[in-house]
Amino acid sequence: MMRQFAFLPAIVLALGSAAAQEPAVPLPVPRPPLPEVKPADEIRQEAAQAGNKSTAPEGVKSEEMTQGEETPDGENTKAEAVILPPVPQKKPAAPRPVNPETGAGSPSPLPAPAKIPVQAKPAFTLEGAKACEQALRKLNVAFTVEKPIKGPGHCGWPRPLKVTSLSRQIKVRGDIKLRCEVVHALARWSKETVVPSAILHLKEKPTAIEISTSYQCRRRNNARNGKLSEHAFANGVDMMAVRLESGKRIPVIDRRGSAEAERAFQAAIRGGSCAYFTTVLGPVTNASHADHFHLDLAIRRGGYRLCQ
Predict the structure, then answer these.
(1) Cα 292 from Cα 43, distance rounded (Å)
(2) Which of 50, 95, 199, 263 to pair with 80, CA 20 to 30 A apart?
(3) pLDDT of residue 305
(4) 3-class DSSP state of 231
(5) What are phi and psi of 251, to 5 degrees?
(6) Those residues with Cβ within 8 angstroms of residue 27's Cβ, 6 or more apart along the chain or in another chain
(7) Residue 274 in contact with residue 216, Cβ under 8 Å?
(8) How buried is 217 (Cβ within 10 angstroms: 0-12 exposed, 13-18 middle, 19+ buried)?
(9) Nearest to 295 by CA among 180, 201, 183
(10) H or E segment to which residue 76 belongs
(11) Max CA distance (Å), the chain
């Protein structure tokens, strides 16, 4: 019997030496247990209970703790009251100024509107006036220098001109007094627009231009109030009609709907005048200009022109 198990010690030693020669295999690191998943109702209940507890910061006792609270050691002690720093208060808004007419606290009245500046006259220099007069002589304009017109009020002009013709061919009918720049615009307009338009549409040359109003101290459209007219500065002129070689008179009237050549002629000289004057008013503008063209050199911001 003993002989049958005599080989066991040798087998055990052989297995032990073989195990010692094999490398050690590391054991797996144990993972932390997963947190327990609580039901939703239980989570909401715990959150509600936590909200009822004091949220005072660490080291600061709440009002409930000042009345007595059981400590972890089981002792019921009364904590000392801690005085919190005062919360800064916003400064009240300044009271509105008192308006004696509408009562205390009412909004202040709006500021008074700025005063309207006095209407400006066209600029004048003696050197500029004499240079303009020299340009008129080159155009063969017949004129004489008149005495200064002074007032009343802001009306007047320092060096008005009395004009009898705008060229050797175009006479001026009417006693007119204008500043030189307006006469110069009239002379160029008659030479470069009126004469060729009459030849084109009426087959005749013009011989005269009728003027009704030049200098006149009054307000716009003869109104009782408002700004002064450019006539008050000798800066505007009212043209009534054109005379032809045949003696025919072409008046300025409302010619809308007409098929006559006079309509084309009037439209041509009206449109052409916008290149020489800053204001052009006529029969299609309003009733005040139903029988004439008002032409002036009013100064506006940005060089704006009014052509109607």
Answers:
(1) 96
(2) 50
(3) 87
(4) helix
(5) -80, 155
(6) none
(7) no
(8) middle
(9) 183
(10) strand 76-77
(11) 171
Q: What is the pLDDT of residues 266-283, one digit of tens each?
A: 999 999 999 999 999 999
**Surface-to-core class of residue 253, CB atoms within 10 Å of its CB (0-12 exposed, 13-18 middle, 19+ buried):** middle
284 close to 254: Cβ distance less than 8 angstroms: yes
Q: How far is it, in rounded angstroms, from Cα 24 to Cα 16?
A: 14
Q: How far is CA 124 from the centre of its chain?
A: 33
Q: For residues 219 and 240, give the distance between their C-alpha atoms in angstroms, rounded to a whole number.
A: 20
Q: Which residue has the tokens 């001026």?
A: 172
- Gyration radius of the chain's alpha carbons: 53
156: enclosing H helix or E strand: strand 156-157
Question: What whole-number distance in Å separates Cα of residue 174 and Cα of residue 262?
Answer: 23
Which of 242, 134, 148 is CA-nearest to residue 183?
134
- Report how far residue 230's alpha carbon sits from residue 289's, in angstroms, rounded to the nearest whole number: 15
Q: Which residues contact 241 (CB under 8 A, 6 or more apart)?
A: 209, 210, 249, 250, 251, 252
In degrees and rounded to multiples of 5, residue 207 shows phi and psi of -120, -20
- In DSSP terms, 157 is beta-bridged to 149
Q: Can you list the alpha helix ranges (DSSP code H) found in the chain?
A: 8-21, 40-52, 126-138, 180-189, 195-202, 261-273
Q: What pLDDT sits at residue 231?
A: 92
Task: Check residue 66 and give its pLDDT.
Answer: 41
